[in-house]
Design a protein that fits this description.
45% of the residues lie in helices and 15% in strands. With 193 residues, it is of the alpha/beta class.
């Protein structure tokens, strides 16, 4: 399934979704431009302050495009918080990481493969495992689609990638594997490097 199609959403419809799904009357500075870029299937790099609303910038487009948004996140607590907030808003989301036992992992993967989830948070180590990258993601992409790939805490790619999470240095493989899927990277901490 090719979900690379652009989602043309009018300003009024986008504002209505923002209000209905997240309870906000307007976007914070910079958010709407990032949301529109992702909706237009453009890659994006967003450097925004902590508390600046980075998550909304990829969560809202995930709801408006077909398929599932895959969010690569290094922190289990952050994944759990994000999924809890999405669940509270009635948005189908989950996380897949080492905190889950085998049975729960299987249940969540089954939901993913059935196309029941709009957002899935995954640790970089899990994402790059042969089974996940070589089987789960390609099947999802072929059947229900991947709406976007999001790298949260993207400063880990260059600043800490070699120490903190070596898998961040391998994320370039996703571009080759899913060339038609927009990739967005978000961080509040960016150095010149």
């Amino acid at each position: 399934m090719n979900v690379a199609q652009q989602a043309d959403v009018s300003p009024a419809a986008l504002a209505a979704e923002l209000k209905q799904r997240f309870g906000f009357d307007s976007f914070r500075p910079g958010q709407e431009a990032i949301v529109r870029d992702i909706l237009r299937c453009r890659d994006a790099l967003a450097i925004m302050p902590t508390g600046g609303g980075k998550s909304l910038c990829f969560q809202l487009p995930a709801l408006l495009r077909p398929g599932t948004c895959i969010v690569i996140s290094p922190l289990i607590a952050l994944m759990q918080d994000q999924v809890r907030l999405l669940d509270d808003n009635g948005i189908e989301a989950t996380f897949i990481n080492s905190s889950l036992d085998r049975a729960e992992m299987a249940r969540r993967l089954a939901r993913l493969e059935r196309g029941e989830l709009k957002l899935v948070y995954v640790a970089p180590e899990r994402l790059l495992q042969a089974e996940f990258q070589g089987q789960v993601l390609p099947r999802l992409h072929a059947t229900h689609g991947i709406s976007s790939l999001v790298v949260d805490e993207a400063h880990c790619v260059s600043e800490w990638g070699h120490d903190f999470r070596p898998e961040y240095r391998q994320l370039h493989r996703l571009r080759a594997q899913f060339a038609d899927v927009p990739i967005a990277a978000f961080t509040a901490t960016a150095t010149e490097r």
